[in-house]
Amino acid sequence: MQLLPSLLILVPLCRGQEWEAPEYCRGSPCAQFTVVNKTTDFEERLYVATAWITTKIPNPTAYDLIAASARLKSVAGHFDAWPVLVNVKNGKEYALSWFVPPDMNIPEITDPSVQLEIRPEVNVYVRVFRGTPSIDQGKLNANELCKSLRKAEKTFSIERYAGAAYESYFALTHHNEVWIDKTQ
Predict the structure, then answer these.
(1) One short Pfam family name for this protein (predicted)?
(2) Does the structure show a pLDDT above 90 at 138?
């Protein structure tokens, strides 16, 4: 009979710990990650495999960003999950991606300009910055992150980066990030 109270105490301790989203997710679903390494200039994070809905942005203008957001909204409706990514490839190809929480069912995508993408588990270098998000701020912070990564002798590709936003554009404060994938 002494064994039962001991088991009641140990069983909860043996369960895997639930992932706790950072404060800047504000209680909304966020892409899950583990911090692998943290420096004063950047973090290295390991993200679990995640789903995203993505559409191309013809030009990096406010009009085209709003239109891209409307296309994603027509597929998924309005849901509160973070981050929203602006993906930049070769400095001239842009796409907007919304994180899809694991428990969300996306309806069939009938718009050929919107795709469901599964991003595999990946190590990402991250630089955090504040202020209203913009294409120019993303580019500036991607360049700063590249400088820091070179200084730290990290391996990465400069062909692609993503600007990550965690609040509405109209929010009073902003937690923004720039992500660059680690290469082997």
Answers:
(1) SOUL
(2) yes
CATH number of 44-182: 3.20.80.10
Amino acid in position 51: A
Amino acid type, 135 = I
Backbone φ and ψ for 67, nearest 5 degrees, come out as -65, -40
Give the residue extent of every domain in the chain.
44-182
- Asked if 177 contacts 83 with a C-beta cutoff of 8 angstroms, the reply is yes
Q: In what order do the strands lie in the sheet with 122-129?
A: 33-38, 43-47, 122-129, 176-181, 160-165, 84-89, 93-100, 50-57, 114-119
- Answer whether residue 104 shows pLDDT above 70: yes
pLDDT of residue 27: 86
One-letter-per-residue 3-state SS of 69-82: HHHHHHHHCCCCCE
- Please state, in angstroms and rounded to a whole number, the distance separating the CA atoms of residues 173 and 51: 27
pTM: 0.86
122-129 and 43-47 beta bridge pairing: antiparallel
CA 16/CA 25 separation, integer angstroms: 22
Q: What is the pLDDT of residues 24-56, one digit of tens each?
A: 988 889 999 999 999 999 999 999 999 999 999
